[in-house]
Recover the amino acids of this structure.
């Protein structure tokens, strides 16, 4: 459905990626891994989901209108093999879609609460990191790679 991402929801669907689908991620920046704040900031899942929704609301309407067949999810923790993962885009970027692109499951953007809270010292840090992660993963939906995102300050 064009326009706004279709949902903020809970658990993975467990579907596999069809040919042509990509997986791109944002991990905890190196500087954040070095700064152990000695505690984990507490925030309920509902509060974190609201921050993700607010970050989505701040995406300019002229861009959200172009988003197509994508759903946004919040998960507590990333897969065990990548504990510092802040967000993940799984899907076929708009720039790679062709005539063959029909009847496929929505692209999936997942934002992970646990790593974001562990790297943040304040609620403002969580807000900022959530916004950067949401923009980063949406940019992958538009076909923007990590190198360009880092150059733009959304690494």
């Amino acid at each position: 459905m064009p326009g706004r991402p279709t949902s903020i929801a809970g658990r993975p669907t467990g579907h596999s990626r069809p040919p042509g689908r990509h997986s791109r991620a944002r991990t905890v920046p190196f500087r954040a891994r070095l700064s152990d704040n000695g505690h984990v900031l507490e925030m309920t899942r509902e509060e974190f989901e609201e921050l993700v929704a607010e970050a989505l609301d701040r995406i300019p309407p002229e861009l959200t209108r172009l988003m197509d067949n994508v759903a946004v999810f919040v998960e507590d923790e990333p897969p065990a093999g990548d504990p510092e993962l802040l967000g993940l885009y799984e899907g076929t970027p708009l720039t790679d879609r062709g005539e063959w692109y029909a009847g496929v499951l929505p692209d999936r953007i997942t934002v992970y609460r646990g790593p974001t809270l562990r790297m943040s010292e304040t609620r403002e840090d969580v807000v900022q990191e959530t916004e950067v992660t949401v923009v980063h993963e949406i940019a992958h939906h538009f076909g923007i790679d990590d190198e360009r995102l880092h150059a733009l300050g959304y690494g």
The mean pLDDT is 81. Helices lie at 30-34, 45-57, 61-64, 113-119, 123-141, 146-152. The longest strand covers residues 85-91.
